């Protein structure tokens, strides 16, 4: 499941653990969701786990400054 809204409905968790890569469409979608939720980094957590490639891509695009990454 790509997106799982926690029961408190205050945090959106996007599970990227099994993603092999993210293209510009995926990055744009993440930014669009962030904007629709008011632009607060604390509302969205991107779960990348040990996926170094996706984590590096997020850092290169400075999305680690816009989202909680775990």
Defining traits:
four-stranded mixed β-sheet, single chain, alpha/beta, globular, 4 strands, 19% strand, 70 residues
List the helices and strands and how they pair.
Layout: E1 3-5, E2 12-15, H1 24-36, E3 44-47, H2 52-60, E4 68-69
Parallel strand pairs: 2-3, 3-4
Antiparallel strand pairs: 1-2
Short description:
The chain has helices at about 25-35, 50-60, and strands at about 5, 10-15, 45, 70. The protein is of the alpha/beta class and about 70 residues long.
Helix tally equals 2
Share in helix: 25-40%
Task: Label the structural class.
Answer: alpha/beta
Sheet-strand content, in percent, reads 15-25%
Mean pLDDT: 82
- The arrangement of helices and strands along the chain is EEHEHE
The radius of gyration is 11 Å
Stretches where pLDDT is under 50 for at least 5 consecutive residues are: none
- Tell me about the largest β-sheet: 4 strands, mixed
Q: Which term fits the overall shape? A: globular
Side by side, the strands of the main sheet go 1-2-3-4
Terminal CA distance reads: 17 Å
* DSSP, total strands: 4
Describe this structure as you would to a colleague.
By secondary structure, the chain is of the alpha/beta class. 31% of the residues lie in helices and 19% in strands. The chain is built from two helices and four strands. A four-stranded mixed β-sheet has the order 1-2-3-4, with no helix packed on it. A hairpin with a 6-residue loop joins strand 1 and strand 2. The protein is globular, with a radius of gyration of 11 Å. The mean pLDDT is 82.
């Amino acid at each position: 499941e790509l997106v799982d809204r926690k029961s408190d409905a205050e945090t959106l968790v996007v599970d990227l653990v099994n993603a092999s890569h993210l293209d510009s469409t995926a990055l744009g979608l993440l930014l669009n969701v962030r904007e629709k939720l008011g632009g607060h980094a604390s509302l969205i957590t991107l779960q990348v786990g040990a996926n170094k490639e996706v984590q590096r891509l997020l850092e290169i695009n400075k999305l680690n400054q816009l989202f909680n990454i775990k």
